[in-house]
Write a structure and sequence with these properties.
With about 150 residues, this protein is an alpha+beta fold. The chain is built from 8 helices and 6 strands; from the N terminus they run H-E-H-H-E-E-H-H-E-H-H-E-E-H. It has 2 domains: about 80 residues, no CATH class; about 60 residues, no CATH class. It holds the Pfam family DUF6462.
Length: about 150
């Protein structure tokens, strides 16, 4: 007896009238910006996956609750670190005092009150850029000297 492929599962018959949000592993991995297998493992840890014949669905409410319970403090710490890394109070004063010789493109654009791409081009023309582990740092002293060379 030859068995053909079974028809795709109609998730709607399982989900009608439910308050929970469900998705497949692929959709969930895209939704949470995770690798497919990392998401599958994460859902198994959270106990949010349900087997339906040859496929599985994930209860997103359980995933969200698991994240809130286990990763809330870590998430808040990362967000505060990112905010503190990006924003420097009185950047111009810090650079003038010599405490910060190198700046990133965004900081330099803010410091010199010009656009980001304009600052990138200016730093490259002044040969003031250094790439350190994937981060481009610009020497403010060289940029200042380059700007001063255009004195009229």
């Amino acid at each position: 007896m030859n068995r053909g492929k079974s028809p795709p599962i109609n998730l709607d018959k399982y989900l009608v009238g439910k308050e929970h949000r469900y998705c497949t592993y692929n959709e969930g991995a895209r939704l949470y910006c995770m690798n497919y297998w990392s998401f599958v493992t994460f859902c198994k840890e959270a106990g949010a996956n349900f087997k339906l014949r040859k496929t599985a669905i994930v209860d997103l409410n359980i995933v969200d609750k698991y994240i809130e319970e286990n990763f809330k403090e870590e998430y808040e710490r990362e967000v505060s670190e990112m905010a503190s890394r990006r924003k420097i109070e009185d950047l111009a004063d810090v650079v003038k005092k010599g405490k910060k010789k190198y700046v990133r493109y965004a900081e330099g654009a803010e410091l010199y009150s010009i656009g980001l791409h304009t600052f990138e081009n200016l730093a490259k023309e002044a040969k003031a850029t250094r790439k350190v582990k994937g981060v481009v740092l610009c020497n403010t002293e060289k940029i200042d000297a380059f700007i001063e060379s255009f004195e009229e």
